[in-house]
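Researcher: Batch entry, complex prediction.
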Amino acid sequence: MVGSAQSGCQIAQELYQSGRRVCLCIGGTGRVPRRYRGKDIFDWLLELGFFDRTVDDLPSPQAKFAGNPHVSGRDGGQSLNLHQFARDGVVLLGHLRGVSGETIHVAPDRKESLAKADAFEREISGLIDTLIEQTGVQAPAEDLPVLRDGYDADEITELDLSAAGITSIIWATGYAFDFSMVKLPIFDADGYPIQKRGFTEYPGLFFVGMPWLYRQKSGLLVGVGEDADFVAAAIAER
Ligand SMILES: Cc1cc2nc3c(=O)[nH]c(=O)nc-3n(C[C@H](O)[C@H](O)[C@H](O)COP(=O)(O)OP(=O)(O)OC[C@H]3O[C@@H](n4cnc5c(N)ncnc54)[C@H](O)[C@@H]3O)c2cc1C
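Model: Structure tokens for the complex:
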């Protein structure tokens, strides 16, 4: 499997739990615990205003393309942890760099990516702890499990697919936009529409439903309606 954002991790988990051998090329997407200190993580993230952050809060325009953190809604919701994957027998690899013949070439950055996921979890749980402290809300103490298994395996930089018995590759590396039907010069170098809160400089042309269009939640079910309301109101006014 290639890609370890939300979809990649969820698919990899289903595959190995159904008895398949899985090798997973990972990136630096973060991880959040499904539940923390007595509440579902999404309740905490909503309270923290995490999804209300706007594009202006991002460190770079490209940051809006980062994958969503590892977590799953399966079986009522559960945490996903790459270290647990490694403990359960998944072979974790770094970024896929290229393919020659039947050999894949992999960057030696697996530990770096795992460290990013670990750091993200620490950051988010730290923000929640601070929120609890500041608001004085009652919440049980919790120490998240600290797993290290993903760091322990040998670094693999080349893998012969036949020798490893790999017969299928699943790409979970995201998707690209296709705005070929829009014949106007309104896309930036990343192919993302140049707009503010869905409004382009062309009267009558608006966007909604894209990740980080205005807020983080613009590309989520919890936020797309709010953006659509805003744009629809402006259209009605015209
Ligand atoms: C893999 C994946 C997982 C996701 N998981 C979650 C999640 O767990 N929680 C969450 O909140 N959000 C999730 N999202 C995001 C969520 O799906 C979107 O935020 C939401 O669907 C956006 O709504 P929308 O109506 O703007 O666009 P869409 O739901 O994409 O609807 C656009 C519609 O327009 C149609 N269309 C496109 N072009 C044309 C055309 N030329 N003419 C006519 N019709 C056209 C399409 O067929 C489609 O029906 C996920 C997205 C993806 C891709």
